[in-house]
Amino acid sequence: MAALTPTQLELLAKAIGDRFDFETLGYILFKCVGDNKIAEVASRTDPTRTIAMACLKQADIDGVMTSFLAFAVDARKSDQPFRDLVQKTVPAVADARPTTREAVSTIVKALFEAHALLGTQEILQAITASRESLGAVDGDVIVLQVHKGLHDDLHQLQLRRYESLQEAADFVAAGDKTKVGMLRDFQDRLQVTQPSMVTSIQQLSVDTNKRVQEQWIGKLGKAADMLQTALDALDEPKVKISLGIVQRILESEPTQINNVIFATARALPLPSLVDTLSTVSAAAGPTAPNLAKSADQVRAVHTMLTARVAEHQLWQEADDNLWTLGRVFTLPPINVLKDFAKLWPPVRSQYDVLSGAESEQIWAGRVRGYADGIGDQLSALDGKLTKAGVLTSDDIAPLQEIFDNFRAQVRLRFFHADKDLRSECTTLVEIGTPIKAILAGLVK
Fold first, then answer.
1. Which CB contacts under 8 angstroms, 24+ apart, belong to 221-224?
2. Which of 406, 414, 350 is CA-nearest to residue 151?
């Protein structure tokens, strides 16, 4: 896009600064570049228009101006005056977000066009020079898909609240059919999920973190078997041991997997694919219409993937803190209040940022409502402790209930972030077929 004039930048900075705060602008910039740059370019105490101008200049430096503006418009979908102003100033924003499905379809066609032209010496030379980067794209896309699938599987298991399973385990020895049935349902999920994980990681080579994944997946399988045996025998201690093993896996492995996804996506050599397709398109001329527009489509996919991975990273970090906060309820009542009150503010801040970027969505309103309710409960408990000098489990119960509602709502939204990223990865895998055909057609 053409460079914006100072007047245009001022106009955009005013409109954006009047609608977004420091945290939300940082989130939008993070989605564009996959790096937390907001603190490098602005201060939380700066006027919001100043912060917006700093973000616009950084987006321009990083070559993501159109994406930055498109994400800002998306964050305020119902604000038609804002949309009109941005699109009038930068018309490219209106067409900045083709779906990954549309973009990948064009890329696949372009790669098959390139494959069909391998008999042309100039094109053969261009593609041969890119053999290594093409192979890297294909391998990294597979790594993304496998690890995203593992993360999604674990998140599905997390949707079953761990504390309720441990509570159910207290009734196993008595043979409570309802509680045992709840545990068997969870055990059935484990037995279905774990073998599919084993199959999935067979696509990985040993040097792509395969052994790390094999270790915890193996532990998960053993825990599932132990849980089945313990339930058959109504052995309450072993039920709790097996659930403890599963809990440790569900707490630690999603972060490890997310780190692999994040690192792989950031290193995915899509820019080199842009260079390859641009060179091949120039050599092919009008005989390959999809090649002519494929470079722009690869850029669009790279932008969207960066955004999805960045979004997923922030959701994962926030979810990690939920695990810590949830464990507070195992403490004596007074300690619950003290520890929860200490840990809650940074957790709320994370979710304020995530919900603030989608403030018009129903889920965001619910999360804000639950968060305000948690604040009210903390104030009420503090007053009760000051007055009575003691707290009981019954006093803590309303706080735990509203926290459980908050956690369920944000984890449901995290599940959709999981789903969106997995969809991007699954669609992106389609470029592997023509890339493999091209690599096979090159002279060994």
1. 221/194, 221/195, 223/190, 223/249, 224/187, 224/190, 224/191, 224/194
2. 414
How far apart, in whole angstroms, are the C-alpha atoms of residue 72 and residue 82? Answer: 9
**Integer angstrom CA distances of residue 25 from 13, 33, 364:** 11, 12, 17
Within a domain: 107: no
pLDDT, tens digit, for every residue of 299-351? 888 888 888 888 888 898 899 899 889 989 999 999 999 999 999 999 999 99
Q: Hunting for tokens 């639950």 — which residue is that?
A: 370
Which of 357, 268, 410 shows the shortest CA–CA distance to 31? 357
Domain that holds residue 162: 134-441
Distance CA 277, CA 117 (A): 12
Tokens of 205: 């080579």
- Token digits for 366? 């619910």
* CA pseudo-torsion sign 415, 327, 330, 378: negative
Residue of 425, 61, 72 lying closest to 270 (CA atoms):
425
Does residue 237 surpass a pLDDT of 80?
yes
What's the CA gap between 215 and 207, in Å, rounded?
A: 15
Amino acid at 250: L
Query: Helix (H, G, I), strand (E, B), or coil: what is residue 332?
Result: coil
pLDDT 10s digits, 25-74: 999 999 888 788 899 999 999 999 999 999 999 999 988 899 999 999 98
* Structure tokens given for 400: 């735990």
- Which one of 65, 95, 125 terminates a domain? 95
Q: Are residues 32 and 178 in the same domain?
A: no
Does residue 127 fall inside a structural domain?
no
Question: 294, 107 in Cβ contact below 8 A?
Answer: yes
CA distance 62 to 223: 47
Cα 216 to chain centroid distance, Å, stands at 21
215 occurs within a structural domain = yes
Count of domains in the chain?
2
Give CA torsion, residues 86, 87, 91, 94, to 10 deg: 120
Q: Scanning the structure block, which residue is given the tokens 């504390």?
A: 163
Cα separation, 160 vs 183, in Å, equals 10
Same domain, 149 and 45: no
Do 294 and 149 share a structural domain?
yes
Asked whether residue 317 is domain-assigned, the answer is yes
- Give residue 267's pLDDT: 79
| pTM of the entire predicted model | 0.74
Q: How many CB atoms within 10 Å of residue 270?
A: 22
